[in-house]
Write a structure and sequence with these properties.
Layout (H helix, E strand, L loop, with lengths): L4 E6 L5 E6 L2 H8 L7 E7 L5 E7 L11
Antiparallel strand pairs: 1-2, 1-3, 3-4
Length: 68
C-alpha cells in the first residue's frame, strides 16, 4: 500500500495547517477551503526522501464552465 505523507501548509499571516495524505494534489485540495490566500507555502518529504519546500497557487482543480 502507498505511504501516507505529512504535509505542512502555511500563509504569510502565520496560519499553519498540517494534513496527512497520499499525494500533494489530494493534500492541497483538502486544505484549500481553509486558506483565503492566492499563494501558500508547503513543506513535505518526497518519495525519494528529499525535503521539499515550495509554494502552491490556489485554487487547484477543475475550473467550472460558465454560460451553459
Amino acid at each position: 500500500m502507498a505511504k501516507m505523507r505529512e504535509f505542512l501548509f502555511w500563509n504569510e499571516s502565520g496560519q499553519e495547517e498540517k494534513t496527512e495524505q497520499m499525494s500533494l494534489t489530494k493534500a492541497v485540495k483538502s486544505i484549500q477551503t481553509k486558506f483565503k490566500d492566492k499563494i501558500v507555502g508547503v513543506e513535505y518529504i518526497s518519495k525519494k526522501g528529499k525535503k521539499i519546500v515550495s509554494s502552491i497557487q490556489l485554487p487547484l482543480g477543475r475550473k467550472k464552465k460558465l454560460g451553459r
